[in-house]
Amino acid sequence: MPTAHRYAGAAAFCREDVADAHRRHPEGDLEEYAAARGLEALGSSSAAGYFAAMPGEDDLQFNILRGALSGGAHGIVFHELLDWEVVGSQPAGGGFFHGVRYQSGKMFRKPDKISFLQSIPVLGDLVQRPPDPDSPEDAFGIPVTTSATLVPEATAAGDWSIDNQPRPLVAPGRTKLKEHGLPGWDLMGADELPEGFVERLLAGPALRSILAGEVERPFFQARTRRGTLVVRCNGWLRDAAQLDELTDELSAVAAEVRAAGLEVADPRPFADPLPAADWPPEGVSMSARFPPDPWLVPLHAFAREHRLVIEDRRCYHAAFPTLPVPGRVIAVMRGGLPGTDLVGRLAWHAERAEATHNVGRNAVLLPAAPQAKETPPWGVKADGDLRLAVRDGVFAAWARRDAPGAGSPRGELGPMVELVADAVAAGRERKIV
Prior knowledge:
- With about 425 residues, this protein is an alpha+beta fold.
- The protein is built from nine helices and 19 strands.
- Strand 11 (about 220-225) and strand 12 (about 230-235) form a beta hairpin.
- The longest helix has 25 residues, at about 240-265.
- It is globular and about 65 Å long.
């Protein structure tokens, strides 16, 4: 097993995938499939708008295709080396894995200050050695094929996953779906799911049929993360019929996830104010009522400088469930937009957790012009990185906030004022705002 790979372990969900797992990358590409289906082939480059579904590293994601997938959903499908938790030197969980190989960090090291402290009874249990930059990450890489599409309607419901992997007898947040007529499946809710959402989701005939048909597969998962639906299965699929089947399943499940999200949403007119946020100057909220430091100080400063009201972010996605901006909101502000005579909203969205990353889009939101026609849900491309959309009477324009490749420090708000000018100009040029 190559020592240079970022993951310490390699494993597979079934015997046929062991060679791929040990090689750490697919042998071939999906160019022929992409050409036949009219999809854009991106290689290992992350697909804009789908960062929540991707690991974001070119040695973990391969053969990325984007476009109108089989089944109708606009999204992506790609080969992924899925990270899997390590317990001891084995993959976590109670499932059976094939071809398990594990190479930990340094086995022997010279005694040092940390070694001495760790040898002290009781105190030593509290001392953690910093990560060794020369050692691989403590995870297994497992070959899977992943498909994804945006489901903004379900963002407010929170993140959850359904899969057929065995778990310990006691697993916090687990709902055994055997009680809902789906033996072999568990639903794990990363967030507290709203009342009625699970019932509506599990009533969907497409989801039930797909889960019943896939229960014997070594690994199958449907999950949402920050308004993105991911459907994945074991192995790096290469056959066109199998890829079509996976993306058909994604499209069918997406329709029911959106319906379940709308069932528990609380839509409001865009012109109505949302409750004002009650945020402290700095701090951390265990309930996610406000974003963590270092976001609070610059957000408060921006709102003061531009005389905007910070609205309660917990109401935002429920109030405007069809907004197509990727990710979950960090902060939303309402008022007169800088440099214009227009009243609207500015929003900072995150496609990865804002507590640890600054990856996402900034958005400008305004009432759409009365004659504006709705765009596709994923929007249309304008100049540069700017995308525009009209959904349910709301004009949305968004662009990437973080610096591509290098990333941006947490708390850096990006060029929002410039985005306002670009968004308004592009919307007026197209007569949609």
